[in-house]
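Researcher: We're teaching a course module on how sequence relates to structure. For the next exercise, students receive a sequence and then see the predicted structure as tokens, so they can try to spot secondary structure elements on their own. Here is the exercise chain.
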Amino acid sequence: MSISNAATKVEEFDLDTTAKDDGKSKKRPVKATKAKSTKGKPAAAEEAEVSSKSLDATQLYLGEIGFSPLLTAEEEVLFARRALRGDEAARKRMIESNLRLVVKISRRYSNRGLALLDLIEEGNLGLIRAVEKFDPERGFRFSTYATWWIRQTIERALMNQTRTIRLPIHVVKELNIYLRTARELSQKLDHEPTAEEIALKLDKPVEDVSKMLRLNERVSSVDTPIGGDGEKALLDIIPDINNSDPEVSTQDNDIKSSLVHWLDELNPKQKEVLARRFGLLGYEPSTLEEVGREINLTRERVRQIQVEGLRRLREVLIKQGLNMENLFSVEDE
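Model: And here is the predicted structure for the students to work with:
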């Protein structure tokens, strides 16, 4: 029997299996029919069909592993010793006999962001690792040892795969402590605990708790469909805070176009310094030191050229009957 789960079959077939009766190890036939196309179906119907397929695949997998006999303590020692010596058949028997343990542990992590089959798959990796590392001479049962490895691989998968922004493992573990404490307090206090209450319970600084809890905020895609028909995305209803008045935008564009012409009245060095300082002509706004590094001048020399350029530019504008004192805002650095 294959150790991996039956998830890959979902894409090709609708899988259905009948449950065992009275615990007898008599395998019922598995019905496999070609999946019908979901093209043209409503989104809700497609989601329900995918959910049904996932359930069928889970039932199929659970039905398959239900026929793997468990090992006695003596058999565990025997097969573990053989597996350590490189016996592939013994290794496979150890794995297959403990697949139900993986399912039992995986169920505890349901509704954490990963489907049950994905949790089982990750847990199976931990089980394989446990078989490879288990030393039967230490005197304890394999299930006790394997449980630790299975939980570790599942928890690590949840940490890595359920977050859009990946956090270091040690940070996620600390965050989980705060979240677990928050759940316990919410049951005792009958309300959502504050950062201060969590900090008091754990004897931690409030600032540290608040910082960690902010890391638990979920990231949502702006393309997430909203509404019953799903025709509108979240992006469509988010206001653009940078969208200025059309009249103001037009005026700004006119000023920028005129600035290019006015800068031509300056000498090349003055023109380059002002363009770099104030983000003109395709440059990004820069500090005096940044401009100095770019054109190999000291900060003080750049400041002097800036003063000379602004004075000259002001004279040009006055000749044209313009008064634009607020055109360039220079902050002290």
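Model: If you want an answer key for the exercise: The beta strands are 13-16, 31-34, 225-226, 232-233. The longest strand covers residues 13-16.
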